[in-house]
Amino acid sequence: LVDCNSFYVSCEKLFNPKLRNKPVVVLSNNDGCIISRSAEAKALGIKMGEPYFKAKNIIVKNKVEVFSSNYSLYGDLSRRVMRTLKRFNPVLEIYSIDEAFLDLTNYPDDEVEDVGKEIRNIVLQWTGIPTSIGIAKTKTLSKIANHIAKKKQSGVTSLIGIENLDLILEKVEINDVWGVGRQLTKFYQKNGIYNAKQLKNKSNTWIKKSSNVLGSRTAMELRG
Fold first, then answer.
1. pLDDT tens digits, one per residue of 142-187
2. What is the phi/psi pair of residue 57, to 5°?
3. Strand, coil or helix: what is 13?
4. How far, in Å, CA of 177 to CA of 141, rounded?
C-alpha cells in the first residue's frame, strides 16, 4: 500500500516552498472542517476532521497557514503519482485520491523492502510528494505495515518473511484495523477484542457466527 503523506498539504507545499517546516492545514469544500494537516500542525494538537472554528484559537496563535481545498490541483498530482507507480507494475488498484495497492509479487521476497524504498524515492523525485509504503501478504496487513511506516524515518515497512506477526498485531488497536468501523469496534470490544492480534486468533466459528463476510475476510487477511 502506497499512501501519500498529508496529501493535500503536501500538494500545497510543493507549489509554495515558503511553507516548508511550517504548520499548514487544508479545509473541506465550504471551509468547514480540517481535512489535511502537516506534521507541524498535528504537533500543535489540531485534529483531523475538526471544525475550523474549534481549532481557530490554535491556528491564529501559532500562525498556521490555512488553505481552501483545491481539488483540480490534488487530482492532477494524484494522477502523476499513480502514473509513476504503474512503472513498477501496471497491476495497480487505486483505493482513494492518495492511496493505491500495488502488486509486488513479480519481485523476490527478499528484495521487496528495497523495491519499496526505490518506489518512495522515485515518487518523491518525480512528483515531489512524500509517501509511506507498507508491504505484506494481504491488503489488511499492508495497511498495518503502512501505519508503522508512517512513524519511521525510512517511510517503508515490510512484514514479508516475519514468521510470527502477533507481537506487531498486539500493538494495533482494533479500530485501526482496515474495515473496522465505529459500530464494529464497539461490538468487538464488548466481546473482549481490543487489538488486531485478538481478532486474528479468534475462532473462525465465532467470527462467522458473529459478524458478516467482511469480518471473516479481515480475520483471514490478518492471518496472511
1. 999 999 999 999 999 999 999 899 999 999 999 999 989 899 999 9
2. -60, -50
3. helix
4. 9
Q: How far is CA 219 from CA 63, 133, 157, 169, 171, in A?
A: 45, 22, 21, 12, 16
For residues 129 and 185, give the distance between their C-alpha atoms in angstroms, rounded to a whole number.
Answer: 33
Q: Are 55 and 71 in contact, with CB atoms under 8 Å apart?
A: no
**pLDDT beyond 80 at 22:** yes
pLDDT tens-digit readout, 184-224: 999 999 999 999 999 999 988 888 888 777 888 999 999 99
Paired residues of 68 in beta bridges: 27
Cell numbers for 49 = 476532521
Cell of 155: 517511510
At 171 the three-state DSSP class reads: coil
Question: Mind telling me the catalytic residues?
Answer: 99
Do the beta carbons of residue 60 and residue 19 sit within 8 Å? no
d(CA 46, CA 24): 10
The per-residue pLDDT for 215 is: 82
